[in-house]
Amino acid sequence: MAKSSTSINLVKTHVGLVDQIIKWALSVGRVVVVIVEFIALATFLYRFSLDRQLIDLRTKIKQEQAVVNFLKDRELKYRNLQERLTLSSAFAKENDERMDITKDILSFAPADMAINSFSISKEGVRLSVDIGSISSLTNFSDKLKNYPKITSVSIEKIENRPSDGVITVTISTGFKKEGENESKSQ
């Protein structure tokens, strides 16, 4: 005689749709909770790294500001020197041209002419001279009129001093502007 064992099973063998949904939700829910916790932990740790970078950058900025403040006086001196060099080179260029004009005007002077006063400005030259004869004065004024850097020559004052044997003359000239040479030549 064979013994037959009877088993008692209290669990349902037939699983319904609701039971399957609950089982799926619990298993997937655990995975979702683990993933969300992982993301939260990663964000938390990333925040610490960002805070560390922010602190490092602020420290670096303060160090760079200290260097800039330390070198500020030197930078101001350097810029001041650059401005003065630029100004002096422009002044030297302008004065070189004036010196050339002055040399040329003095080379036009006849032998019997003595210069009492000589002034040069941006606009022109003003001369006060004692000259021995009218022909010397005419030659001198013609040379000034033909000089390419002078636009006008005017004799402002003539005083004849026969007791000294000279004629005192005041002459003014006008310089050409930089744009005049180009516009007249075209």
Tell me what you see in this structure.
It is a single chain. By secondary structure, the chain is of the alpha+beta class. It has 2 domains: 16-100; 109-179, 2-Layer Sandwich (Gyrase A, domain 2). The chain has 3 helices and 4 strands, in the order H-E-E-H-E-E-H. The protein has helices at residues 17-108, 134-146, 178-185; strands spanning 113-120, 125-131, 150-161, 166-175. Strands 1-2-4-3 form a 4-stranded antiparallel beta sheet, covered by helices on one side. The chain is rod-shaped, with a radius of gyration of 50 Å. The model is unreliable at 182-186 (pLDDT under 50).
List strands and helices in order, with pairings.
Layout: H1 17-108, E1 113-120, E2 125-131, H2 134-146, E3 150-161, E4 166-175, H3 178-185
Antiparallel strand pairs: 1-2, 2-4, 3-4
Order of helices and strands: HEEHEEH
Which parts are unreliable, with pLDDT below 50 for 5 consecutive residues or more?
A: 182-186
Largest sheet: number of strands, sense, barrel closure: 4 strands, antiparallel
Strand content: 15-25%
E-strand count: 4
- What number of domains? 2
Q: End-to-end distance, in Å? A: 139 Å
The chain-level mean pLDDT equals 85
Shape field: rod-shaped
Query: Roughly what percent helix?
Result: 55-70%
* Helix/strand/pairing category: alpha+beta
Could you give the order of strands across the largest sheet?
A: 1-2-4-3
Rounded to an integer in angstroms, the radius of gyration calculated over CA atoms is 50 Å
**Number of helical elements:** 3
